[in-house]
Prior knowledge:
alpha+beta; 6 helices; 4 strands; binds zinc ion
Amino acid sequence: MSSSDNNNNNDENDNRMYSENNRLKSFTNWPHNSENISKKEMAKHGFYQLHGHDNNDDLVRCVFCDIHMSGWQSKDDPNVEHQKASPDCLFAKLQKSQMDLTLEEFMTIIYEKNNIKIKRYRETIRENLSENIEKLLAVVEKV
Length: 143
Ligand SMILES: [Zn+2]
């Protein structure tokens, strides 16, 4: 199992993928037959399949938190793996079927998704900044 959080602009796609049915339709070449990680289960847990990413043919993305995950094992529980990889995803945390979400819950999930994005963005900036400071210090020490 591996995961990452690419910061692509997926807003347009997201609007379509908020529909569980559209997510289900995205699994056009899903390599797994296991019940646990069937197309239906994956779509139910917020995932849709991403295509054309260097032979990673089980690469999925959660529309509610932007996490990218691949390397699924037949015994994986999508919700457990989802929460492990993306502990802030409110959709994964609520463990509710999308049909049972209230409008308020749905709106809160989308709101939290933006917070997750901001948090990840901040972390990236912080990492870049400390890397640059280290480089700078190395140069200064040589002077
Ligand atoms: Zn998620």
